[in-house]
Write a structure and sequence with these properties.
Strand content of chain A: 15-25%
Number of helices of chain A: 8
Number of strands of chain A: 11
Order of helices and strands of chain A: HHEEEEEEEEHHHEHHEEH
Low-confidence stretches of chain A: 1-6, 8-20, 249-256
Oligomer: homodimer
Shape of chain A: globular
Mean pLDDT of chain A: 84
Strand order of the largest sheet of chain A: 1-8-3-6
Largest interface: A-B, 46 and 46 residues
Distance between the termini of chain A: 60 Å
Chain lengths: ~260, ~260
DNA sequence: CGACCTGTTGAAATATATCAAACATGGTGG
DNA sequence: CCACCATGTTTGATATATTTCAACAGGTCG
C-alpha cells in the first residue's frame, strides 16, 4: 500500500530554512498564534519547505506517520480509500492548516495536493519534542484537534441526512468561509479540484455534482467564471439550504 | 434550544464521592490508565456520580459546556439535530468513554442515554485545572481526541460510499469490538437503541435497518435473541462487508 | 382491555447512480 | 498553425437502492 515515491523534494533554494519556516509556521492557523519568537524558532529549526504540483501525493494512507505538514499555499484533500477503489474525502485543507498530525503509527488517510501547493514539512519526533517543552502549543493542538473533530461531525450530519443540493450548498458556504478566514475578499471563489473531487467529499458522483451546480447557476444563485471560479450571487439562498431547514423556501413552520 | 432540565440528579447515596469516582475515572479508557493515585484523587475530588434512565437527556446541543461526563455503565448516543427535525447520530459511546469534552463554549452535539446508565460528572473548570497540572493527562486527552477523530472519519467513509448492508455490517463489527474491548465474552451482543437510533447513526431509515437485519438473519449470518440480543454467527461475512471490498464474495480482482 | 411503542414486511415513489454521448479546453507534436 | 489527444464538464436516458407510505403483529404498561 505504501510503496510510492512520496513527493518531489525541493528545498527552497533562496532563503535559509529557519527563515522560510518561521513564516510558514506562523501561518498555521490557531496553532502558532500564541507563540513567542523562541518557540517559533524551535519549530522552524526542524522543518523544511516543499513544493508540490497538482495531484501530487503528499503521503499515502498507511504510510508511517513520521512527518507533519503545514500547508503554506494551495489546497489539499485528505482521502480514505477502500480496497475496491471507492474513495471518500475526509476534508479539504487550505493555507495555514496542519496536515498529518496523528498519534497513530501510520496515517489513517492519504493526502494529495489539489493544485500546485507549497508545504512546510517537519519531523514528527521534532514536533513532539517542541510540544513537550511548550505546553501552550500542546494545548492549542488539542483545541485544533477538537475543532477538526467538530468539522468532521458536521460532515457526518451532511452525509447522513442532507440532499445533494444541501451538500453542495454547504460546501460552497464553507468554502466562502475558508476564503474569508484567509483574508480573501470578493465573492468569486476558487473551486479546488474537479467535480469528481467534490463528489468524493460530498458522497456524490461527479455527474450529480455537475447537475446541482448547473441548477444553482440556472437559478441565478451562482455564476461560473473562467478556470474554476465560482461567484456566489445569492449567498443567503445557499446558506438557507446549508442550514438544513427542509424544503420550505420561506418559513414553513409558522404559516399564520 | 437549551431550556430543559438536564438530568435527574442522583448522587450516589452509599459511598463517598471520592471513592466512587476514583473507580469511575479509572475506567475512562485510555485517559486515566497512566495516572498515579494522586492524579486520580484530583480528578475524583471534583466529580459526582449520576444515574440516568433510558432516553434521558444528558446534555443538549447548544448547552454551555460546563461539565464533562464519563460513562460508567450503559450506552449513550451523541446526536446533531437539524432545524427541521432531521437527526444524525455522531456516534455511540459505551462504558469508560468520555463524553462532552470540548474547547467550545457550547456542546456541538447533544447526548442521551440509550438505556439505563450511570455517569460520572465533573466540572469542566476542575478538569482543566487537573489537566494543566498533569501534562500526561493532557497528552492522553489529545490522543483520545485524535482517536475519536479517526473513528469519525471512518463514519464519513461509511456514510459517503457504503451501501446499507455494508453500514449495518460495519456497525455490528464495531459493536463486537466495543464489547470485546470491555471484556465481554461470547458472541451475543447487546444492541443499543432502537432501529430508528441505528438509522440515525448509519444515515438510513428505520425500515431499511430492519430490512437489512432481516436479510442477515435469513442468510444465517446473525440470530436475534430476546430483548435486543444479536448473535454474530458468521462474523467473517460481516467483516468482509465492513472491509468494503465491493460486491464480490470471493476475491474478484484475481480470477486466474 | 386499550393505548402505545417497537419491529416487520409490502408496494409505490423518488433521489441519486449508472451508462452514454457530445462538448469544451489545453497541451503536444508534427 | 492545426490535428490530435487527454482530461474535465455537461446533459440525457435509464436503472436501482433507498425512502416513503401503509398495514399489521407482538410486547408492555397504565
Amino acid at each position: 500500500v505504501s510503496t510510492r515515491t512520496a513527493i518531489a523534494k525541493e528545498a527552497a533554494p533562496t532563503a535559509r530554512v529557519a527563515d522560510v519556516c518561521a513564516t510558514c509556521a506562523a501561518r498555521v492557523v490557531g496553532l502558532c498564534a500564541p507563540l513567542d519568537a523562541v518557540a517559533l524558532g524551535q519549530i522552524a529549526g526542524g522543518s523544511e519547505r516543499i513544493a508540490v504540483r497538482a495531484r501530487d501525493v503528499i503521503f499515502l494512507q498507511g504510510d508511517p506517520s513520521a512527518q507533519v505538514f503545514a500547508l503554506v499555499s494551495g489546497a489539499a484533500r485528505l482521502t480514505r480509500l477502500l480496497p475496491d477503489g471507492r474513495r471518500a474525502a475526509i476534508g479539504f485543507r487550505f493555507a495555514g492548516d496542519l496536515i498529518g498530525y496523528t498519534p497513530a503509527a501510520e496515517y489513517p488517510f492519504g493526502a494529495e495536493a489539489l493544485g500546485d501547493a507549497t508545504l512546510c514539512r517537519m519531523d514528527r519526533g521534532h514536533l513532539d519534542l517542541v510540544l513537550r517543552t511548550n505546553p501552550a502549543i500542546e494545548r492549542s493542538l488539542l483545541d485544533l484537534c477538537a475543532r477538526e473533530l467538530a468539522a468532521t461531525q458536521d460532515q457526518v450530519m451532511a452525509l447522513a441526512r442532507f440532499t445533494a443540493e444541501e451538500r453542495v450548498a454547504t460546501f460552497l458556504v464553507a468554502l466562502a468561509g475558508a476564503h474569508a478566514a484567509r483574508g480573501r475578499i470578493g465573492r468569486v471563489l476558487d473551486l479546488p479540484g474537479t467535480r469528481a473531487d467534490l463528489g468524493d467529499l460530498l458522497g456524490l458522483t461527479l455527474e450529480t455534482v455537475s447537475r446541482v451546480i448547473s441548477a444553482f447557476r440556472r437559478r441565478g444563485w451562482i455564476a461560473l467564471h473562467a478556470q474554476s471560479g465560482v461567484e456566489l450571487i445569492e449567498p443567503q439562498q445557499l446558506r438557507a439550504l446549508a442550514r438544513g431547514e427542509g424544503a420550505c423556501v420561506g418559513g414553513c413552520t409558522a404559516p399564520a
